[in-house]
Write a structure and sequence with these properties.
- This protein is of the alpha/beta class.
- It folds into 2 domains: 239 residues, Alkaline Phosphatase, subunit A (3-Layer(aba) Sandwich), CATH 3.40.720.10; 156 residues, no CATH class.
- The chain has 15 helices and 15 strands.
- It is globular.
- It binds zinc ion (ZN).
Length: 417
């Protein structure tokens, strides 16, 4: 079978709805996008559902589906994904938690779930705890996230995520820390995990209360971060490697470390450099150049992720969303000018919609294009949600778009003789 390459740009949260200040257009319809228009004119287009019509998804689930992975079956839960986004390399069998640095009194009554919204010094606190070895040999990895947030991973034999951890939720202040326990008292693995988590929590508090960061906080009249509250347990099970399943060698270029982590879970390589941020401003051209370079190095599929469109949606900044879409159009122009067009497909999609007026993810279809010299052309002439309703890619889901790209590139396996 003939093999070709492909580049996919994912504009996070791109999909939108008609907006008054944009004369009733969406940001994609309103933006000046000569390159995306060209791809739309020469390729297949449509509004594609991340999972199903009307079902909003998170960035994590959306990317699993775009990468050809069934999130219903394999979504590992928030704990492992937070750990991945903290940069912890997860192994099969690890149990991970999302956590907070919090404040408790001597009776373990929770005074503040966020330790006075601690910002500084959390890296030092996490470092003082990470690498702790528990009595049964289980290893604990701890890594700070933004502000008061932290990721905790238990690594050992025979662990289970089916436990009630120390933090039951936002109504926890003024009540005593929960002693971790198994959801099912008969489950030995869960019992062992709960005991491990409690041992860690107590030892962590002993270390934290005398830590110089906390001594200084107390001197300055701030609440000490003297406990780690954990919630959202999840266990990393074997996620089928998309790379192995299809035989593609893929690279994901993203400033957003969660997206990079998910790419790693499905067997893709991940590339980031300092100028590639997951923010409003990122090195758009640098990402496009890196993608073209990777195609030159022989990667079969290169995915570029841009976060800014989602942030602009959450902040209800339609004009900022328009500006970022125009930057993406510039990336497309660079890519179109620097690849061998008869050997490389180009696709464009989003992980979900983040309409500006909704300020949150919605279950709308996301604008999608697949372009290549032999891709079927529909009658669509312009890039935009309204135009794409006339396109060829109708009633499809993110995983269908993945499959279509793999088939074009020659990586789909024939069924039957
Ligand atoms: Zn997203």
């Amino acid at each position: 079978m003939r093999k070709r390459q492909g580049i996919l740009i994912i504009s996070d949260g791109l999909g939108d709805r008609p907006i008054k200040v944009l004369n009733g257009m969406t940001p994609l319809e309103y933006a000046y996008t000569p390159n995306l228009d060209c791809l739309a004119r020469e390729g297949s287009t449509g509004n594609v559902y991340p999972i199903a019509p009307g079902i909003p998804v998170g960035t994590d689930v959306g990317h699993m589906e775009i990468f050809g992975c069934d999130s219903d079956k394999y979504y590992p839960g928030r704990g492992p994904l937070e750990a991945l986004s903290a940069g912890i390399e997860m192994k099969e069998g690890d149990v991970a938690f999302r956590g907070n640095f919090g404040t408790v009194d001597e009776e373990n009554i929770v005074i503040d779930r966020r330790a006075g919204r601690i910002k500084d010094g959390t890296a030092e606190l996490a470092k003082a705890l990470s690498g702790m070895c528990l009595e049964d040999g289980t290893l604990v990895l701890v890594k700070e996230l933004t502000e008061h947030r932290v990721a905790v991973v238990l690594r050992g034999k025979g662990l289970s995520a089916a436990i009630v951890p120390t933090d039951v939720g936002t109504a926890n202040e003024g009540v005593r820390l929960v002693v971790p326990h198994p959801e099912n008292p008969q489950c030995e693995e869960a019992l062992k995990t709960a005991e491990n988590l409690w041992e860690f929590t107590k030892k962590a508090s002993d270390i934290l209360k005398d830590h110089p960061v906390n001594q200084e906080r107390i001197r300055n009249g701030l609440l000490p971060a003297n406990v780690i509250l954990t919630r959202g347990p999840g266990q990393l099970s074997a996620i089928p490697s998309t790379a192995k399943k299809t035989g593609i060698r893929a690279l994901c270029i993203a400033g957003d470390i969660t997206v990079g982590g998910i790419a790693g879970l499905v067997g893709f390589d991940y590339y980031v450099q300092d100028s590639f941020t997951g923010g409003f401003t990122t090195d758009y051209m640098g990402k496009a150049q890196k993608a073209v370079e990777a195609i030159g190095e022989g990667y079969d599929w290169v995915v570029i992720h841009v976060k800014g469109t989602d942030l602009a949606g959450h902040d209800n900044q339609p004009l900022e969303k328009v500006r970022i879409i125009e930057e993406i159009d510039g990336m497309m122009g660079y890519i179109m000018n620097h690849i061998e067009k008869d050997r490389c497909y180009i696709a464009f999609t989003a992980d979900h919609s983040t309409p500006c007026e909704a300020k949150d993810h919605t279950g709308d279809g996301v604008p999608t294009i697949i372009w290549g010299p032999d891709v079927r052309r529909d009658k669509v002439e312009m890039a935009g949600e309204a135009y794409f309703m006339e396109g060829a890619l109708q009633n499809l889901k993110a995983r269908d778009i993945f499959a279509l790209q793999m088939d074009l590139m020659g990586f789909s396996k024939k069924r039957g003789a």
